[in-house]
Amino acid sequence: MDAKKYYIETYGCQMNQADSELIAGLLQDVCYRPTSNPENADIILINSCSVRENADRRAIARLSQFKSLKKSKPELLLGLIGCVAQRDQGAILTDKKYVDLILGPDTYRNLPEIISQAQIPYVDVNLSRTEVYDDLVPIRSSTVNAWVSIMRGCNKFCSFCIVPYLRGRERSRSPLSIVNEIKKALKDGHKEVTLLGQNVNSYHYAEYRFPELLEAVAAIPNLRRIRFTSPHPRDVNEQMLEVMRSHPNICKQIHLPLQAGSSRILKLMNRTYDQEHYLRVVEMIRTYLPQAAITTDIIVGFPDETSDDFEQTLEVMRAVKFDTAFMFKYSPRVGTKAAEMDDNIPEEEKSRRLKVVIQLQKKHTLERNKSLVGTIQEILIDGSSKKNPAEMSGRTDTNKIVVLKEGRSQIGEFCRVKIEEAVGVSLFGKIT
Ligand code: 5AD
Ligand code: SF4
Predict the structure, then answer these.
(1) DSSP-derived secondary structure letter, 4
(2) What is the enclosing helix (H) or strand (E) of 196?
(3) Among the atoms of ligand 1, which is closest to the Cα of residue 257?
(4) Is 56 helix (H, G, I), strand (E, B) or coil?
(5) pTM above 0.90, yes or no
(6) Burial label, 221 (beta-carbon count in 10 A; 0-12, 13-18, 19+)
């Protein structure tokens, strides 16, 4: 008899990707095999994200598209999992009766029992104070990078953000289980690890805080690249930067979500820092790690954001010159504090502000990239160029994508590359 097959579609952040890899591991343990064609699957899981309106809508739309498949194949198990499942369980149960499984982010461990006993529909959205899935073995989708989740949840409660409500309170995983997972990933051939957490540098387990954990990970033999995402500006300290400086295998890139430049808006956002503090953190990073890339997240059109407030976001952008940024229009998330405020910036104005920040960021990305032209960088090859699949591409230590115009290379290989050109948001080079 053919093995049963699973199909998982993942939306949103890297935490969701890492969770999908854990789920793949659980399903393979009970003899399921992956398929890339949902029509061949015995179980379809949509791992959803609810952080912004778009991702949220796409996951629900996708679920609806599977309705007819489910009709023609009643034995198929169709599940919505992750943040939208956590938030919308009630509505899904009543409006989408064809959905079999609704599972929140802390309930995946039981998946094998759930599908074997299959009391349909099955709903579990309990949040846990302890679950970190530390003994599960993921099936990784990349052969180069390994996502390693080190903490879950968030205690910060930024006023715009739904995450603390859907992913629960912060909890960290033991350093020993993290180090063991990384050693196994290296044995399996992975070349780079990315430590993941909603607030990765709030990590705290017994006497280990984030800098101590980083140090322990950096000491793992033969580990050449360590990344982490996302840190919170409030939790960046000199000790963390010192550990980064003293270990060449910790990549010199920091994602430092700004969200807004105006201290008044930052206060309304409950970000726990103001413009001055943010710029001080950037100064500190530049002092310890002059070569580091700094990337960010920016929200435009938060309630009450005046043109003067918005101008301050542009000012901080000009002062820092981020290497890249993810930029978003504010969208109210039901249940958050900001959703109780008046969403009073008209949609056209949000779009206009978004255009302005995107324009400015493009200019900064190009400027920052151009400063690398003529230098030699170590690139870890991880795929091929989107535009021309015959050209391989990889990433610098600072996480910039470089397309190789000349020279042979293989996925997973480290190459010395001369950077020859910066165009748009891309870098081009050749193996030296
Ligand atoms: N509206 C717009 N952007 C948001 N983000 C989080 N919540 C919202 C929201 N309600 C953005 C933040 C965060 C990133 C992951 O998503 O910039 O850092
Ligand atoms: Fe959301 Fe703020 Fe927590 Fe990040 S730090 S997950 S933006 S509440």
Answers:
(1) P
(2) strand 192-196
(3) 18
(4) helix
(5) yes
(6) exposed
Contact 249, 218 (CB under 8 A): yes
Q: What is the pLDDT of residues 97-119, one digit of tens each?
A: 899 999 999 999 999 999 888 67
Tokens of 160: 């715009």
At 118, give phi and psi (nearest 5°): 35, 70
Under DSSP, is residue 136 helix (H, G, I), strand (E, B) or coil? coil
Residue 304, sorted as left (phi over 0), alpha (psi -120 to 50) or beta, turns out to be left
Structural domains of the chain ordered from first start: 5-124 (3.40.50.12160), 142-251 (3.30.750.210), 376-431 (2.40.50.140)
Index of the ligand 2 atom closest to the CA of residue 157: 8
Atom 13 of ligand 1: nearest residue by CA position? 297
Which tens digits make up the pLDDT trace of 320-359?
A: 999 999 999 999 999 999 999 999 999 999 999 999 999 9
Quick check: CB of 164 below 6 Å from ligand 2?
yes
| CA dist., res. 185 & res. 143, Å (int) | 9
DSSP letter for 259, please: B
Q: Which of 201, 203, 232 to mutate to test the pocket of ligand 2 (most atoms within 8 A of CB)?
A: 232
Task: Report the amino acid identity of residue 253.
Answer: Q
CA distance 77 to 99: 8
